[in-house]
Amino acid sequence: MTPSTGPGLTLPDGFLMGASTSPHQVEGNNVSSDWWAIENRPGSFVAEPSGDAVDSFHRWPEDMDLLSELGFNAYRFGIEWARIEPERGRVSRAAVEHYRAMVRGALERGLTPVVTLHHFTCPRWFSELGGWSSPESADLFAAYAKVAADVLGAGVRHVVTINEPNMVALMHTLMRRAVRKEGDPAAAGGEHTGAAAFEPGSLEPDAGVTRALIRAHRAAFAVLKEADPALRIGWTVANQVYQAEPGAEEVAAAYARTREDVFLEAAREDDWIGVQAYTRHRIGPDGPLPVPEGAATTLTGWEVYPEALGEAVRYTARVVGPHVPVLVTENGIATDDDDLRVTYTEGALASLAAAMRDGVDVRGYLHWSALDNYEWGSYRPTFGLIAVDPRTFARTPKESARWLGSLARAGRIPGGAAAVPGGGPSAG
Ligand code: BGC
User: Fold this and answer.
1) What is the percent of the chain with per-residue pLDDT over 90, rounded to a whole number?
2) Cβ-count burial of 14 within 10 angstroms (0-12 exposed, 13-18 middle, 19+ buried)?
3) Strands 287-288 and 326-330
4) What's the pLDDT score for residue 5?
5) Is the pTM of this model over 0.85?
6) Which residues contact 163 (CB under 8 A, 6 or more apart)?
7) What is the pLDDT of residues 202-220, one digit of tens each?
8) Distance from C-alpha of 258 to C-alpha of 1, rounded to nearest angstrom
9) How far is the CA of 52 from the centre of ligand 1 (A)?
10) Which of the residues 47, 350, 408, 425 has the least number of beta carbons within 10 Å of its own beta carbon?
11) Cα–Cα distances in Å, from 177 out to 45, 171, 203, 295?
12) Higher pLDDT residue, 415 or 368?
């Protein structure tokens, strides 16, 4: 299909256009991680284990070749704590070298690396200590960040300390519930689609874990700045795009308070803030409402709502403040209809362009995801710009990848009328 890109918005110099992945979802055989342990225990609530994932642990050069050939100038990937520190205090130099090679590989291909230190998975030993509820968690994370600085020293400028801390705090509650249900055959199996398990619904994020994550972020920030003051450090928050139905404004604000705002406010001293948005969540007087009747939904059951991105970016800038630039670190759609991926992304970019025209300082757009990958319990929801054959691991870029790559090459996104006023400094 040929999407109508309209006159377009010319992107400021240095704008990052690329795609994202996370280690556990693409590397495969993340055997020292807590997720691997959960996936593989008998009776697990996780429907499908990650196994080889898409073998990016070995195939990262091919992944980066493709992204760069497609026209992108940035790649967000993660480094895996469980590989770098498989036992408490024991650093795998081989793992550090592996990730240093990835950083160099990205730079050689003209891809700016945006590197995540923690994306949902922890080393098994860390979880066994109590994970984020252990009193030592912030110090342990800061010690890992110190080792990670060695990887970043290979040429990284943009670092994410913790991916979606707000989802991590919710998952803590969710996991406890799911584990309680594991012994219950009525609750096991079924139509589990991975990401659906992370639907915030009416779950309350764990307040202790929230505080621990903020402490860990600040501690890692300090350690990383000491290692290299030039690093641009932030974290990435899952924006739920809460929309209050008439009369439910206070309920919606209370939802946003503990699930989003507290994490955004913790970014006010950061170098940038990551926005991750997929859909909206309508809130009525009694809490979250279902997807509106007749609305199109994705393979994760989420409403197809491209405007979520622009709304999330505006909300984030309002809460964090205009002095902290925004990087879109995730936005995408789980679908096997690639035309829909293009239409959705076109709408999302148009809403982003409108926010930028209105003055929000956005420095990059990284699509989720570069590849079809392991969606936390299932391979069924395909978010990728690049398809992967599960047997041969052969990669095939989709039309959406070519379309988005051509926008990156042209330095223009749909939906805007002109260049952003005054251009803008380089990203982050
Ligand atoms: C996460 C990704 C996930 C994506 C789609 C984000 O919450 O950072 O790991 O795959 O959304 O569900």
Assistant:
1) 87
2) middle
3) unpaired
4) 47
5) yes
6) 22, 78, 116, 118, 119, 120, 235, 236
7) 688 999 999 999 999 999 9
8) 42
9) 19
10) 425
11) 10, 9, 10, 30
12) 368
How do residues 391-408 score in pLDDT, each as one tens digit? 999 999 999 999 999 999
Give the residue among 45, 33, 12, 54 at the shortest CA–CA distance from 371. Answer: 54
Read off the pLDDT band of 177 (50, 70, 90): confident
Contact assessment for residue 396 and residue 349, using Cβ atoms and an 8 Å cutoff: no
Q: What pLDDT sits at residue 187?
A: 45
**Neighbouring C-beta atoms of residue 293, cutoff 10 Å:** 5
C-alpha–C-alpha distance, residues 99 and 77, integer Å: 10
Residue 393, both tokens: 């691991």
Residue 205 DSSP code: P
* pLDDT in the model for residue 416: 61
Compute, in angstroms, the gap from residue 421 CA to the centroid of ligand 1: 32
Query: Among 244, 246, 225, 242, which Cα is nearest to 234's?
Result: 225
Per-residue tokens: 30 = 């993340």
Mean pLDDT within 36-50? 95
C-beta of 238 in contact with ligand 1 (< 6 A):
yes
- The four Cα atoms 189, 194, 200, 203 give a dihedral, to 10 degrees, of 40
Tokens 């996780």 -> residue: 46
DSSP state of 45: S
Superfamily of domain 9-417 in the CATH hierarchy: Glycosidases (3.20.20.80)
Q: What is the pLDDT of residues 269-299, one digit of tens each?
A: 999 999 999 999 999 999 999 999 999 999 9
CA–CA separation, 363 and 325 (whole Å): 7
Q: Is the pLDDT of residue 3 over 80?
A: no
Å from CA of 280 to ligand 1 middle: 15
- DSSP structural state of residue 259: I
